[in-house]
Specification:
By secondary structure, the protein is α+β, with helices and mostly antiparallel strands. The chain folds into 2 domains: 41 residues, Arc Repressor Mutant, subunit A (Orthogonal Bundle); 75 residues, Alpha-Beta Plaits (2-Layer Sandwich), CATH 3.30.70.920. The protein has a 4-stranded antiparallel β-sheet with strand order 2-3-1-4. Helix 2 packs across helix 3.
Length: 153
């Protein structure tokens, strides 16, 4: 865990909202010299606090309006079963997130598709063929109430 001061937190908060800020813009917004700001950002990158920079795409514009949460229970908990499942699910582009869970399901997937027919095809071609799956339950999101990639700093 890296020690973050208030200036680091301000920099991180701004970069999470506006990742394309130039160093000059960022330094002005946090009231720091450009060279000091650059050193801080470089330190945060090197420490792994900042993992990378991405463009956030609009799912609806790209025709991926439907979000489905899929709970998966595996047939066993042996390392080879978990490893095979995780390797296979990592190859499915529609799976945005895959979490190993404690609770009623072993894994929770967040999937984006264009509509229910698209999900049916994904289910048939990929999800139903995942190794070690004993049971699967899908829940369709009706409306996105809140979504963010920003971590509180």
């Amino acid at each position: 865990m890296i020690g973050l001061d208030q200036m680091d937190r301000r920099i991180l908060a701004l970069l999470q909202r506006e990742g394309r800020l130039t160093n000059a813009e960022l330094s002005e917004r946090v009231a720091l010299s450009p060279s000091a700001c650059h050193r801080r950002v470089a330190r945060l990158e090197q420490a792994g606090v900042i993992r990378g920079y991405v463009a956030l795409l609009d799912r609806a514009v790209l025709g991926r309006r439907t979000t489905v949460f899929v709970e998966i229970t595996l047939s066993g908990q042996a390392d080879e079963v978990l490893d095979a499942f995780e390797a296979a699910v990592a190859q499915i582009p529609e799976v945005l997130e895959c979490h190993l869970m404690a609770g009623t399901a072993d894994y929770l997937l967040k999937v984006v598709v264009s509509d229910t027919e698209d999900f049916a095809q994904l289910h048939r071609r990929h999800l139903a063929r995942l190794p070690g799956v004993a049971q699967m339950q899908s829940s369709f999101a009706l409306r996105r109430v809140r979504e963010t990639t920003a971590i509180p700093v």
